[in-house]
Structure formats: C-alpha cells, structure tokens
Design brief:
Elements lengths: L1 H23 L2 H9 L4 E4 L1 E5 L3 E15 L5 E6 L6 E2 L4 E5 L2 H36 L5 H33 L2 E3 L4 E6 L6 E2 L11 E16 L11 E6 L6 E13 L4 E9 L10 E6 L4 E7 L11 E6 L2 E6 L1 E4 L4 E6 L6 E4 L16
Antiparallel strand pairs: 1-20, 2-15, 3-10, 3-14, 4-6, 4-9, 5-8, 6-7, 8-10, 10-13, 11-12, 11-14, 12-13, 15-19, 16-17, 18-19
Helix pairs in contact: 3-4
C-alpha cells in the first residue's frame, strides 16, 4: 500500500516537471524573453561619401636630360659638379675648340676667294657683253662668260654654308644648360675624348634634372578608372617628407598594365626648394567625386567575410538581410548591396542571440 502511494507521488512529480517545460516553451513566454534582449536601433544612413582611392608610386623629375657634346672632341673643361643648381644658359662644359676654330677660319678664307673669283668673272662678263655688241666675240663666248659667273656665284653660296656650319660647330664646343635644374650625375672628367655620334646617350657628360616641379607617377587599380578624372584632389605621403603634400591629378595614362591591371596617373607639384627628391616612394590618396552610399556601424555586421548579414527591425521582428560591404572608416562600413537606406538596423550586446523572424517588439 505504501509502495503504491510512493509510485503515485513520483508520477505526479514527473507530470509537474513536464508541465513546467511546456510552459517555458510556450509562445507567450518566448516573447517575454525576446522582449528582454539588450538591443538598440540605428538607421542605415544614405549619405554622400568620398572613398579615397589608394595608389603607390615614385617621385620623378619634371625633365631629365643626359647632356653630351654636339660636336666630338676632347673634354677640355667641365664647369659643374653633382649637386650644383644651374639656370637656363649657364655653362656646363667645353670641348677643345682648336680644330673647329681652324675649320671656321678656313671656311671664311674659301668664301673670300670665291667672292674674289666672282668679281673677276663678273668683270669678264661685262667686257664680253660690250665686245658682243661690237660683234667682236661670238654668242658662244658670251654664254661661256655668263656660265662662269653663275658657277662662281654657286661656289659663293656653298662657301657661305660651310662658313655658317663651321661657325655653329665652333659655338657648339661650349654647352649651356637648356633649362634650369640640378646636376644629378657627372659621367666623365676632363681629358676624355667623346664622339657626338655614339648612340644611346653613352657620350653624356652630365645629367640635368628639372625638379622645381616634381612628378608623382602612381599606379592605381584599373577598376577605379570611372572614378578618376584630371583635376581630382590628391594627398601625397612622401618618404622623407613629414608633411603631406596636396596636389591634383595632371595626367591619366591611356595604357593599362595587363599584368597588374593597374592604371598610371601623374600628379604634378611645386618643388621650388628642391626638397622633394626624384626616386622617393610616394603613397597617394585620391579623392574621387562624391557619391551616395549606405553606411552602418561596423559592429552591426555579422557572419564571415563572404556571408555578411545584418538584422533589421520589421513589424516588431528581427529580419535577417544578406549584405555585401566594404570598409568605409574605422567605425563604419559601406553597404554595397542588401540595404537601400533608412532601414532600422539592430545592434547591441544580445545581437548574437537573434534568429531570423524572432519577435523583439518595437524598441
């Protein structure tokens, strides 16, 4: 009898436990728990943004010229050294002018002799014309006198050309700076014989760079092509220069590198103090035209990189939305797809407890 009562009591306890479990699983209790979740709302904001385009590259001089002799000969004197700053027209170096001076004097003498011969044949022609009128000479003799004048006149013209060339060669023994800049390399010293006919610039004596304007040549992803334009503002971070330099895109190259899929842009900047040196590494932040974008807090996004999602509040429920995002700044991400703006996005400590469709009430 006692044992039977014991079994009945145990049965009642089991039924009570099952009832409690069913009670806790009921919808009314679930809603009560959901309402207690620690959540907040933020609005997916549609705003005008400028996402910097990042590129890297190298600083180059505005112009670089390897300057060698125009005429061949022995280098007699070099007037500049590496590090010198020169102005347009300053002396750079001098080739031994002796043989060119002799050639110039010889050309002038030959021209003078041609002029003397011309005066002689011209006088002979005048005499022949007088004699021809008196029938003292034949037509052929007169024509011969005329031909002699024409021939010597041509010799004068040719001699004058040789004089001009000899004079130019003599002047070209002294080389002057074609533009203002800095001497960045000196290839030879005095006494070396150089020919002006050597191809490839191997006869250069000095290297002159125009760096009062520096050029940053930067590679950027070709996919950013539609966001680039001449005049776009750029912030340049240059190695060795503590202050960023503000500039603008000057040139967009039409050629795309098929191996790296990058596009070359050129950015000019003033460098009157020559502080920016060619060869320095540069990082560029290019600001394209502003565009509309949806941004939300970074911590509202859940899931692995290729499966991002957020929860938005719709009709008192947490609705899961798949999104594609890219970095915007340290605290925000840009939603490329999945949200259109003005959605109420759920955030908060209990965000990880949410499931699609769970009731959370109106926050």
């Amino acid at each position: 009898m006692i044992r039977l009562r014991h079994f009945k009591m145990m049965g009642r306890l089991v039924l009570a436990a099952l009832g409690a479990m069913l009670y806790l699983a009921s919808p009314s209790i679930a809603k009560a728990q959901d309402a207690a979740l620690n959540l907040r709302l933020v609005t997916a904001e549609l705003k005008n943004v400028q996402s910097p385009i990042i590129g890297t590259g190298t600083i180059f001089a505005h112009k670089t010229s390897k300057i060698g002799p125009i005429v061949g000969g022995q280098v007699r004197e070099i007037y500049v050294n590496v590090g010198d700053r020169v102005q347009k027209g300053d002396l750079l170096f001098k080739i031994n002018p002796d043989r060119y001076r002799y050639a110039f004097e010889e050309a002038k003498a030959n021209h003078a002799m041609a002029v003397a011969r011309f005066n002689e044949v011209k006088s002979a022609l005048e005499r022949a014309q007088k004699l021809f009128k008196k029938d003292s000479i034949s037509q052929s003799q007169l024509d011969k006198a005329r031909s002699a004048v024409a021939l010597v006149k041509a010799e004068i013209d040719a001699a004058k050309v040789r004089v001009d060339k000899a004079e130019t060669d003599l002047e070209d023994t002294v080389l002057k700076a074609p533009f203002a800049g800095a001497i960045t390399f000196r290839y030879v010293n005095e006494g070396v014989y150089l020919s002006s006919q050597v191809p490839g610039g191997s006869s250069a004596i000095v290297e002159l760079q125009k760096i009062d304007i520096a050029i940053a040549i930067v590679q950027v992803p070709a996919r950013e092509l539609e966001n680039l334009y001449v005049g776009a503002p750029v912030k340049l971070m240059i190695d060795g220069i503590s202050t960023p330099v503000n500039a603008q895109i000057s040139i967009i190259n039409d050629k795309v590198d098929i191996e790296t899929r990058t596009l070359e842009v050129r950015i000019g900047m003033e460098n009157f103090d020559f502080a920016i040196k060619p060869g320095l590494f540069v990082k560029a932040e290019i600001l394209p035209k502003s565009r509309s974008a949806v941004v939300i807090p970074r911590h509202a996004v859940q899931g692995p990189r290729d499966e991002h999602y957020v929860f938005v509040l719709q009709g008192g429920k947490a609705v899961r939305k798949t999104v594609h995002t890219i970095d915007f700044d340290a605290t925000l991400v840009e939603v490329v797809s999945g949200l259109t703006g003005n959605e109420r996005v759920l955030i908060g400590p209990d965000l990880l407890r949410l499931k699609d469709g769970i009731a959370v009430g109106e926050l």
